[in-house]
Design a protein that fits this description.
87 residues, mainly alpha
């Protein structure tokens, strides 16, 4: 995915924005990006704009990944949990 400045569909989803230092502000920024992209994706779907809608979906996946990384860092998770262990 191309992360060039100016290619993001909503201003709140631009990854070039400053990253807040507090966890609460980071979570708010991530959620704002996701909400704006969900709304934009719905709007593009209603208009029938398939290519921009696909780009919006990719950008939403990026922010969902960022959210997962932020949650893991906040909880101290290393990814070595119960998943994949034999019962």
């Amino acid at each position: 995915m191309n992360l060039d400045r100016g290619k993001w569909l909503t201003p709140s989803a631009d990854p070039a924005r400053r990253i807040p230092s507090s966890a609460a502000e980071r979570q708010w920024q991530i959620e704002a990006a996701l909400v704006s992209l969900r709304n934009e994706e719905q709007r593009l779907d209603r208009l029938g704009f398939e290519l921009p809608m696909s780009r919006c979906h990719q950008q939403r996946r990026f922010w969902e990944f960022v959210r997962a990384i932020d949650v893991m860092s906040a909880t101290g998770s290393t990814g070595s949990g119960e998943l994949g262990r034999a019962a």
